[in-house]
């Protein structure tokens, strides 16, 4: 490796698996990876979403491989990884992106709903990571990027399960780093701020009188950048964590939040 290869952001010849990447944040990240040379593999929960994703990648000139797989199903995940290794090759970069949220006040939430969120947002990154790590060890390198959240650090009404899962995902990130760093595996997190995607659409819905949703105004006031993030805002930081430029960055959560976590909030007039 030459002196300046270590600051290369190229993903040439790398195979990247991005979970739940038919649209939204995962789609943007995968498309960004493709723009710097990676081969893209993604999965989603049903064939309809996978077909939608394949079409969207094709429109950008990206030949992605798409598979149906529920990331909470351990057996299905192992079958998926096996299939990818046979049909595409071994995975160099894993992005644990698939996620769900249920906005329900904690005392009204059933334990079953709580478990569902933990299952997708925390158990699944554990399952997919442990399925790819052995091949990464054999290869001598690997990058795992967990999509965390503001809720890895902060709480708010109605998102107890999501915050518990994303807080746990931050610690899973640090633990994968601790346990497998010696094998040249870097495991880091991206902590998106409030990003405009279907997941957050209900928080931005216009009021009957055409005015902004109060949560929409709240987020704009809470964000020093004074706007919601776009999915493309996450591309550069994620490429950094997937590339050789970050080979000595491990167990870190890179918050891409327009400054939310740095800000105490506007003082009252
Ligand atoms: P999204 O629009 O809801 O996309 C998530 C994708 O994951 C969807 O395609 C979803 O399928 C899929 N998925 C859900 N459960 C799955 C399962 N069991 N197996 C496989 N795929 C599954 O979400 P997003 O806003 O792009 O968010 C992507 C990630 O970023 C999530 O982890 C989210 O928590 C995190 N995040 C989002 C924001 C934000 O402001 N949007 C901020 C911070 C972090 P369905 O369409 O069927 O649900
Ligand atoms: C919510 C939101 C958030 C975001 C995101 C913030 O209801 O507060 O959905 O949790 O999606 O994860 O980083």
CATH class: Alpha Beta
- Count all strands and give the number: 7
Widest sheet, order of strands: 3-2-1-4-5-6-7
Q: What's the helical proportion of residues?
A: 25-40%
Q: Kindly report the name of the CATH homologous superfamily.
A: NAD(P)-binding Rossmann-like Domain
Model description:
- With 269 residues, the chain is an alpha/beta fold.
- The protein has helices at residues 24-35, 47-59, 74-87, 111-139, 160-180, 214-222, 235-242; strands at residues 15-19, 39-44, 65-68, 93-96, 142-147, 185-192, 253-256.
- The protein has one domain (12-195, 230-262): Rossmann fold, CATH 3.40.50.
- Helix 4 links the parallel strand 4 (93-96) and strand 5 (142-147).
- Helix 4 packs parallel to helix 5.
- The protein is globular and about 55 Å long.
- The structure holds NADP nicotinamide-adenine-dinucleotide phosphate and D-gluconic acid (GCO).
- Residues 19-20, 22, 24-26, 43-45, 49, 70-72, 97-100, 120, 147, 149, 192, 194-195, 197-200 line the site of NADP nicotinamide-adenine-dinucleotide phosphate (NAP).
């Amino acid at each position: 490796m030459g002196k300046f290869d270590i600051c290369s952001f190229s993903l040439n010849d790398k195979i990247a698996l991005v979970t739940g990447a038919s649209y939204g944040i995962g789609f943007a990240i995968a498309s960004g990876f493709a723009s710097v040379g990676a081969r893209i593999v993604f999965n989603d929960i049903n064939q309809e979403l996978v077909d939608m994703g394949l079409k969207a990648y094709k429109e950008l000139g990206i030949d992605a491989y798409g598979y149906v797989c529920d990331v909470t199903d351990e057996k299905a995940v192992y079958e998926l990884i096996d299939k990818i290794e046979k049909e595409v090759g071994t995975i160099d970069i894993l992005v644990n992106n698939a996620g769900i949220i249920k906005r329900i006040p904690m005392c009204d939430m059933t334990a079953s709903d709580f478990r569902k969120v933990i299952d997708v947002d925390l158990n699944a990154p554990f399952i997919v990571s442990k399925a790819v790590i052995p091949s990464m060890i054999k290869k001598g390198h690997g990058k795992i990027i967990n999509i965390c959240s503001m809720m890895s650090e902060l709480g708010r009404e109605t998102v107890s399960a999501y915050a518990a899962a994303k807080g746990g995902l931050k610690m899973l990130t640090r633990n994968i780093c601790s346990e497998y760093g010696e094998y040249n595996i870097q495991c880091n997190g991206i902590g998106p701020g409030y990003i405009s995607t279907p997941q957050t659409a209900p928080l931005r819905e216009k009021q009957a009188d055409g005015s902004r949703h109060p949560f929409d105004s709240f987020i704009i006031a809470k964000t020093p950048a004074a706007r919601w993030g776009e999915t493309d805002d996450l591309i550069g930081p994620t490429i950094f964590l997937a590339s050789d430029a970050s080979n000595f960055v491990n167990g870190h959560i890179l918050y891409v939040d327009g400054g939310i976590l740095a800000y105490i909030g506007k003082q009252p007039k």
